[in-house]
Design goal:
TIM Barrel; 3-stranded antiparallel beta sheet; 13 strands; 33% helix; 17% strand; globular; binds (4S)-2,6-dioxohexahydropyrimidine-4-carboxylic acid; binds zinc ion
């Protein structure tokens, strides 16, 4: 196959930031994607429906002329979140999910949840109205090794929450382990799992061998090769529970190439070319549309996009090494292999 036309894809986990960074990086996503679930971990976080509406307006205002892109807003769950505010924001159609960060798990997560019992009323309301909970699935206990934090979260937090809240619809976000793949497969259709582009490409050696590579550092951190292979198998399996959430997370180079470098891989620019290469390598290019364009809308109970995207195989495509934003340069994820699939609208 040298040409593939798919329904226009969506990104079910995306960081757009705000201000000059938003302005600089939004075109990278809007070029190929019709919609994205927008992460609320701004400073301060997007906690209320009113804040989400204002952020949505800032995103729409930052869109380039002629771009058609719909931001799907989320609320950042805190121990003070009001279930009635969440319900109102969902009923108005503004908010499509609530995001749970365990406090301290990642970038701008200090307002997240410390005691999961304190968010029970919100989770119960969400189960009642069918609003999905997006989960950053890592424990933060200092005695748990960083490479084990996702697997431990499944046992200690995710499974108890799901048992205690029947009907709660959950997205395990950016899964990085075979444990998470297995857990997702053990559940019914009230559980989905997103997989990033970069976790299909890199394992922990890419970060650490031959010198530390800060642009490959993200959270959850890439694990050993067996886990990457499990993720590739899941993403390319055709199973509807697995769908694309890039977790494209821009930080300026000065903050990535730093003594305490920020977590995040910026993949918005070349994600579709990389995914085409990955699905082709696995011999299932015909399943790319399901992963990128069909399974996510089915989980979120939204229509699939009307538009299309065409991928054409040819000489290697070159993408910019960096996106120059008003906030500073942002390095584009380097998959480490040539990309032959050109993307056009
Ligand atoms: O690598 C990451 N970057 N993981 C996250 O969970 C947050 C994100 C960010 O906001 O930079
Ligand atoms: Zn994220």
């Amino acid at each position: 196959m040298t040409k593939l036309t798919i329904r226009r894809p969506d990104d079910w986990h995306l960081h757009l930031r705000d201000g000059a960074m938003l302005q600089g990086i939004l075109p990278e996503t809007a070029r190929h994607f019709a919609r994205a679930i927008i992460m609320p971990n701004l400073v301060p976080p997007v906690v209320t429906g009113e804040q989400a509406a204002a952020y949505r307006d800032r995103i729409l205002a930052a869109l380039p002329e002629g771009a058609v892109f719909e931001p799907l807003m989320t609320l950042y769950l805190t121990e003070d979140t009001d279930p009635a505010d969440v319900a109102a924001a969902a009923e108005s159609g503004l908010v499509k999910a609530v995001k749970l960060y365990p406090a301290g798990a990642t970038t701008n997560s200090h307002s997240g949840v410390r005691d999961f019992d304190n968010v029970r009323p919100v989770l119960e309301k969400m189960a009642e109205i069918g609003l999905p909970l997006c989960l950053h699935g890592e424990v933060t206990d200092s005695d748990v090794d960083i490479f084990d934090r996702e697997a431990v979260f499944i046992d200690r937090v995710l499974d108890p929450i799901r048992r205690a809240t029947p009907g709660l619809r959950v997205v395990m976000e950016h899964i990085t382990t075979s444990d998470a793949v297995a857990y997702a497969r053990s559940a019914g259709d009230d559980l989905g799992a997103t997989i990033t582009t970069h976790h299909l490409v890199i394992n922990r050696n890419h970060i650490l061998v031959g010198g530390i590579k800060p642009h490959y550092y993200c959270l959850p951190v890439a694990k050993r090769e067996t886990h990457r292979l499990a993720l590739r198998e899941a993403a390319t399996s055709g199973e509807a529970r697995f769908f694309l959430g890039t977790d494209s997370a821009p930080h300026i180079d000065a903050l990535k190439e730093h003594a305490c470098g920020c977590a995040g891989c910026f993949t918005a620019t070349n994600t579709m070319s990389i995914l085409a290469e990955v699905f082709e390598q696995e011999g299932v290019l015909d399943r790319l549309e399901g992963f990128a364009s069909l399974h996510g809308p089915a989980f979120y109970r939204l229509p699939v996009n009307e538009g299309t995207l065409t991928l054409t195989k040819g000489e290697p495509v070159s993408y910019p090494e960096k996106i120059l934003t008003g906030a500073g340069p942002v390095t584009v994820f380097d998959p480490g292999f040539p990309l032959h699939w050109h993307v056009s609208n």
